[in-house]
Each structure stands twice: as C-alpha cells, then as structure tokens.
User: Fold this.
Amino acid sequence: MKSIIRIGNLVVNPKSKRKSFRKGRGHGSGNGKTAGRGHKGQNARSGGGVRLGFEGGQMPQFRRVPKRGFKNRNKKIILIINLGLVNKLFDDGANVDFEVLKSKGIFSKKYDGFKVLANGDFNKKIFIKANAFSKSAKEKIEASGGKAEVV
Assistant:
C-alpha cells in the first residue's frame, strides 16, 4: 500500500544537512588560531586580498596579451537548406519562401535569410524564393520544372 505524503510524515535526510564549520574557534576544532589564513601578510588581514587579475604589481595577463578581432554588428546570419529537405517537406507546385519555412518550424533562431544547396534528391516542381542559391541547386530546380528566384 502506498503511503500518502503529508507534512506530518516528512523527514529530513540526515546526510543532507551538514553542520556549519566554525573557523577560528580554538585548536580543538582543527581550524583555530590562524583559521586557515596562514601567517601574517595581506591575505591574513581582515578585508585583505587582491582584486581579480591582480598580479602583485606585475603587468597583468589581460594587458600583456594584445586585443584581436571584432564582432561585426551588421553580419547577416544565413540559414543553409538542402534540396533534399525541401523535397521531403513540400508537395508539387508549392511556393517556398522565408515565412513558409518559419511557419513549418525548420529553424528557431533569428535568421536574416536562407541559402539553398543542392545536396539530396530533388524531383518536384517547386517555386523557391531565397537569398542565395548554389549553381548546382539552381540547375536542379529548373531541371525539375521549378523556379529559383533570388530575393
């Protein structure tokens, strides 16, 4: 018979609660006297320590290594689609463009357009509007009676 979980019969797992460690409370605790800070020096003092990346006055790594490259804010992100996929998803006489592919759920990220490549079998009469076509993809589409239009 299954027991019903109620607030009255909930029990804390004894291993899940670890006792807090009290540093600097006598040598019997195993962490008394210097409380794990060592002897004297900047790191032994209250409020002591150095900021992230500080190397004791030596020129820090992030300033020694030269900066390189940049991120192009105006870069267009183009989705690549193979003709084999188009052949599978669409019927004869279909019109394929960016919005139709988006509604089919082929991609989820924000793309600025798509390019069609000739990979896979293609034998349907489909009209495709894309940002770019590979030469062989354009030939395949037109050979099967479809139309490839660059937008």
About this structure: The beta strands are 78-82, 95-96, 113-117, 127-130, 132-133, 147-150. The radius of gyration is 33 Å.
